[in-house]
Amino acid sequence: MSRLFATLTMAPILTAASTRTVASLPKAQVVASTVDHSGAVYLTGTISSADLPVTPGAFQSQYHATTCSWPQWSFPCPDGFVVKFNAAGQLVYATYLGGDGADRPAAIAVDEAGNAYVAGTTASSNFPLTDNRLADNSPVGGFVAKINAFGTGLVYSTRLPGVALTSAIAVDGLHRAHIAGNAAGPGLPVTPGAIQTQFHGAAGYGDGVVLKLSARGDQVLFATYLGGSSGDSITGLALDSEGNVYVATAG
Fold first, then answer.
1. CB 95 within 8 A of CB 55
2. Which pLDDT tens digit goes with each residue over 209-233?
3. What is the pTM (predicted TM-score) of this model?
């Protein structure tokens, strides 16, 4: 948690009090942040309690998760959350994001209109999805959710077919999300002309993946594997002004 404070307090737009409001919540972990052109700060992470300071009109006001079980113990499943502070460090909105299983946001981006894009992994059968989404019924896997500027609704929310984990997200000027993550096997909706059309990971190993979604979140504009026969993972993603995608990998 001290690392979070060190990162955020370097930005003068956040007051110490507003930072602690999120970071000191019981069973909460901030995993990603971003800043928009106005200086507003967006945070996402996981929380395993009903203690999020949810704002009026938030699209998900309740902690939905139940109990997760491992062979030797049980624990409260985490929900995701998304929080926005304005440039003065005042809370604009706070909302849960999740269903009855374990939901783990991993990355966040924002467009010039203030819409927040959250990428993560869900194991919830009732994760909040919109009608405009990709066709995928996987019980566990990656997701992307676009939250409006007020935190009151989902512009879109979709599972990502063939994606086991997500690690990074960036948004271009046309509000198209670019997502990086990992696949544990075949199933990615690879598009024509993709750099790598086949899953190359051997048993027990994954490949990296990169996808680009339409502005409505209901169409894959491109999708490719990125990896070899050993374990490969993508740890970062960025865009330039021409729409080229840059990824950092580990393998």
1. yes
2. 999 999 999 999 999 999 887 888 8
3. 0.90
- Sole residue written with tokens 């990603």: 32
| Helix (H) or strand (E) segment spanning residue 32 | strand 28-35
Helices (H) and strands (E) in the chain, counts: 2, 16
Distance CA 48, CA 78 (A): 4
Q: Which pair of tokens denotes residue 163?
A: 């994606």
Angstrom distance (rounded) from CA 35 to CA 9: 14
- Rounded to a whole number, what is the distance in angstroms from the first to the last CA of the chain? 28
Q: What is the DSSP string of 146-203?
A: EE-TTSS-EEEEEE-TT-SEEEEEEE-TT--EEEEEEESSS---PPTT-S--S----T
Tell me the domain boundaries of the chain. 2-250
- Give the rounded distance of the alpha carbon of 35 from its chain centre: 15
